[in-house]
Amino acid sequence: MNNTFAKELQKIRKSQKALTIFVLLFVLVIVWGVVTLFSAQRETKIDTEVLMLAKPLNPVIDTAHFAKMQLKRSFTDTELANFPIYQLLTNEKTREEVVVPIGVTKKDLSTQSEVAPSPTTSTQDI
Fold it and tell me: Which residue of 24, 57, 81, 94 has the lowest C-beta tally within 10 Å?
């Protein structure tokens, strides 16, 4: 009986040593992690340009822009329906680029004997 008691006591001592080693290893890992975290915080610096970009935006809205937008002219649906839309086509006979209304095709343009002059802006219009 004395022999079995000694064996059991020796097993407990071995497991106690293993438990002590694991506890010390755990404490060492925690200390190592904290030291690494603090040293990384000291070494990491934020660029001043990033700090400038991180500042909050100015929430002040200039209402004068809204007044300008309300003064802009708006078109009715009938005015928009009569609004001319032009396209740029290349005449296949003369190889000139011509500005024509949307309904005109290249075929219509090549069958015309005389090409109508394209609208231009004069210096008086500017």
Answer: 57
